[in-house]
Automatic annotation (TrEMBL):
Regions of compositional bias (Basic and acidic residues) in chain numbering: 1-14
SUPFAM superfamilies: Winged helix' DNA-binding domain
Pfam families: MarR
SMART domains associated with the record: HTH_MARR
Organism: Occultella aeris
Higher taxonomy: Bacteria, Bacillati, Actinomycetota, Actinomycetes, Micrococcales
Family matches, as Gene3D superfamilies: Winged helix-like DNA-binding domain superfamily/Winged helix DNA-binding domain
UniProt domain HTH marR-type: residue ranges: 14-146
A molecular function GO annotation: DNA-binding transcription factor activity
Protein name: Putative HTH-type transcriptional regulator YusO
Region named Disordered: 1-23
Domain of life of the source: Bacteria
GO process terms (BP): response to stress
Length: 147
């Protein structure tokens, strides 16, 4: 059986937890990326728009840190969002040398739509688990990522 993109599905690993987690994460990421297609955004653009909208404006260095990318890559992402009229650059009122990427009204509205779509993708993906299983999975993942 092939997936919607015409590729053969990945073989599901037998029992290695790291492989299982990677496989599950890839499945969720594929669904998330597919949900963005109607808006013509890549996942990294949607994530950047969320960072910018959530903070009502962000420096490029902050965007790079949130996305875990190089500052020059953040510049390219913001350039793409600006070309789509989703963000604009404005001087940082607290530092004249710095520039903020600020969401436009269109960008802010789109960030809300995308947030709702992301939540629906997540709900659909995890709906195969009972509510108590979802809670258990969340607890286990919290334990794994705790420092």
């Amino acid at each position: 059986m092939t997936n919607p993109r015409g590729r053969e599905p990945e073989r599901v690993p037998e029992s290695d937890p790291s492989d299982l987690l990677t496989h599950a994460t890839r499945g969720l990421r594929r669904r998330w990326a597919a949900s963005l297609e109607p808006w013509g955004l890549a996942p990294h653009e949607a994530r950047a728009l969320r960072v910018i909208s959530d903070s009502d404006g962000a420096r490029l260095s902050d965007i790079a840190a949130h996305l875990r990318i190089a500052p020059r890559s953040a510049t390219e992402v913001v350039d793409a969002l600006q070309e789509k009229s989703l963000v604009e650059r404005t001087p940082d009122p607290t530092d004249r040398r710095a520039v903020l990427a600020v969401p436009t009204d269109t960008g802010r509205a789109l960030a809300e739509e995308i947030g709702a779509a992301r939540l629906q993708v997540s709900r659909d993906y995890f709906s195969r688990l009972e509510p108590q299983e979802q809670d258990q999975l969340a607890a286990l993942l919290h334990r794994l990522i705790a420092d």
